[in-house]
Amino acid sequence: MTALEAHLEASGAPPAAVNAVMIAIDELVTNVLGHGGARRVTVNADVADGRIGLEIEDDGVAFDPLAADTPDTTASVDARKVGGLGIHLVRTMMDEVAYARRDDLNLFRFSKTYDEASASRGAAG
Fold first, then answer.
1. pTM of the model
2. Phi then psi dihedrals of residue 106, to 5 deg
3. pLDDT score recorded for residue 34
4. Do residues 99 and 8 touch, judged by C-beta distance below 8 A?
5. Which CATH superfamily hosts domain 2-119?
6. Are β-strands 41-48 and 96-102 bridged in parallel, bridged antiparallel, or unpaired?
7. How far apart are CA 125 and CA 39, in angstroms?
């Protein structure tokens, strides 16, 4: 993932947005590989107009992570159901999230917006 992170930073995205996106990618790809049985995973990224857009495509079993119930984060650790915190984190950190199943592939799209003026000032200073 280091190459992706470097690409996002070189494209002008600020570190806070890049960090949030990298956490989301790590969570989603880990789930795809660990639970989805995927043999192929493709990650595409686009940085433009104050937005980092990402797409993860995999050939694992059909699974819509957005259909999962939101975990009760107010319950004690012992009372919580296992699972669901990662996608909850992704939903919370990203501005847009979407899932589709197309041609026997899972397609998960998400994005993070940022203030372009702040990003360029941070890069210059």
1. 0.80
2. -85, 135
3. 87
4. no
5. Histidine kinase-like ATPase, C-terminal domain (3.30.565.10)
6. unpaired
7. 43
